[in-house]
Amino acid sequence: EKTAEKSKVECCSYPVSIFFIVVNEFCERFSYYGMRAVLVLYFRFFFRWDDDLATSIYHAFVALCYLTPILGAIVADSWLGKFKTIIYLSIVYAIGQIVMAVSAINDLTDADRDGTPDNMSVHVGLAMLGLFLIALGTGGIKPCVSAFGGDQFDDHQTRQRSTFFSVFYLCINGGSLLSTLITPILRGQECGIHTQQKCYPLAFGVPAALMVVSLIVFIAGSGMYIKAKPKGNIMMDVCNCIGFAINNRFRHRSSKYPKREHWLDWADEKYDKLLIAQIKMVCRVLFLYIPLPMFWTLFDQKGSRWTLQATTMDGTFGSLVLQPDQMQTVNPILILTLVPIMDRVVYPLIKKCGFNFTPLKRMTVGMFLAAMAFVSAALVQIQIDETLPVFPSASESQLKIVNMASGQMNITIPPQQPFALGSEQASDYLTFSNMNIMVSLNNPPISKNFSLTVKKRNTLIIPADPNTMYMTQDITSKPEQGSNAVRFVNGLSSEVNMSYAGNDKQFPALEYVYLPQGERIFTITNGIQSCSFSRKFGFGGAYTFLIPSTLLLTENCGNAIVEVEDIKPNTVHMALQIPQYFLITAGEVVFSVTGLEFSYSQAPSNMKAVLQAGWLFTVAVGNFIVLIVAELAKLPQQWAEYVLFASLLVAVCIIFSIMAYFYTYVDPAEIEAQFTRKDEMEPEEKEKNTIELEEKDFKQDQKEKLGKTKM
């Protein structure tokens, strides 16, 4: 039953109440994605956890967010109803966001005002409590909000309801887009009472404020909502009914008992036929859900694997510079573009062409597009691999020689061929399988032994006095997040300090300092005089700057600074990722938007939130599959892993298309109406059938006993 029909107000044939729901969803998604955007950095740099622990806790939180919808569905369908469930869990949600913001206040336990919390366990405890409340809140309302929005439409408003789900999904991505752009900027600010730190309280506080706004907006529309009453503890009824049917079928497994049309029909001795029919509809849809997690397995990797791929690419788009982790914003931008195009242009055009593009056919196409996106990612990865440096294997080491002496050097390092190296020049990396080497110079004649380390890169520096040549360790991987690794080698006889504009931090001797993309001005000073020079950096390079012994601290440092390229910058452009983002987003539009609509249209009136929770549960399972496949496959090449995931999804896509072919669309309201118009079975007749079954059981038992007696 639906209540509050008399208060229903429409605008342009749409219920006014859905506008409150749409605004509520936008604010809630902004709150969730904004908080999640900075969560790993919060773990890594505020709590000082290592990468593995930060990642593990992050994924545990995300998994919990997609598991709690089951709890929300039970509460909504059997106890509070969707409206009250959304209200109460939104309050829990908002409290969780506020607790997260409080946990990030550095001065909360910083009694000595040194910029470091004195009792980190307090901050960790508050953060874990906040995350648990957020997971409970966001997961609990997930299956309710979209279903509650669908309840606002009458049965004849099919087109309006379909458009609502499209707009609903637009709000999700609109909130995601804005929050992932804004909250990292807020985090980058510095704030604090006693010491200035990265402003995590603001980064968490703004999402908390948006969650409060979301709650207020939803409550404001209370008088206009159509509120479907909860219809009992339906989840327990479903479980008990299925359990009874399986048990009853097992007890009557003998061939002497007549078969029934469906295995759930074995429950009709105890349960109402309407309930059995509803459970049949749920089971048919849930059966179709089995292959769906593989789509989310691929889709969710755009925030992990594809972002890591972007760190090895060039993000310069003319005057606009896109950081690797900002490439993810392409997804919500394309969503906002493709949803109206699909809804208003593509689907009507397909319909006019006479092709019956059913929801399950759309979902199949969406899965195929996602697989093609990973094929595209694999092709891009192959191009990237061709430009990456070849690092030493598990049994090798690499060595580069830098000559900072005043003259040319003839160098011999067996088993390599002798070679000449000019002043202020560097060789390419030489590969060695023997970790103990002897370096011989001819001017003056010097020989010296060095020990290398497997899987490492080193640089041998020959200073002005070759007798004091020494070795330093280089990086053996691309700098993370597209940054550039820069270090200086001082060839002067006196100490100098190196720094760069915009940062007072000094360059430690022979240690890499990581700088972002763009032009940087460096200053060299000996305490009395100084000189400056500039260099423009791309993405992902590593450089060693040589300060020669002849340096004069004049304008532009006399153009004497020599740049040695340890690792080449990224040369494959990030624009090549756009096709894979387009394909995965197009797949998401026809898969996810359709999935929301399909789940609602095929769900019984009292189990809609249960099916919504089942849909979201597939997302959680998909995240677990990423970890399982990645761990079991152990593929050395990233492109091969992309191909593996694409192949798995194509296989699943074929299976799903076969399942969809045999699926028959139903009208839940019509089926339920058939049972409400007439009683399928009178109580006396049901009792009679039960007695007959019991008599058959008794006779069968007597025969078995008689047989045993004769033996």
CA distance, first residue to last residue: 62 Å
Q: Which stretches are low in confidence, meaning pLDDT under 50 for 5 or more residues running?
A: 1-7, 698-711
Whole-number mean pLDDT = 82
What proportion strand?
5-15%
User: Biggest sheet: strands, sense, closure?
Assistant: 5 strands, mixed
What structural class do helix, strand and pairing data support? alpha+beta
Radius of gyration: 33 Å
Proportion of helical residues: 40-55%
Summed up, the helix count is 18
Number of strands: 24
* Dominant shape: elongated
GO molecular function, one term: symporter activity
Subcellular location: Apical cell membrane; Cell membrane; Membrane
InterPro entries: MFS_trans_sf, POT_fam, PTR2_symporter_CS
Pfam families: PTR2
Produce a short descriptive summary.
This protein is an alpha+beta fold. Strands 9, 12, 13, 16 and 17 form a 5-stranded mixed sheet that branches.
Describe the 3D structure.
With 711 residues, the chain is α+β, with helices and mostly antiparallel strands. 53% of the residues lie in helices and 14% in strands. The chain has 18 helices and 24 strands. Strands 9, 12, 13, 16 and 17 form a five-stranded mixed beta sheet that branches. Strand 16 (457-462) and strand 17 (470-474) form a beta hairpin. The longest helix has 35 residues, at 69-103. The chain is elongated. The two termini are 62 Å apart.
Features:
alpha+beta; 5-stranded mixed β-sheet; single chain; disordered N terminus; about 15% strand; about 700 residues; 18 helices; disordered C terminus
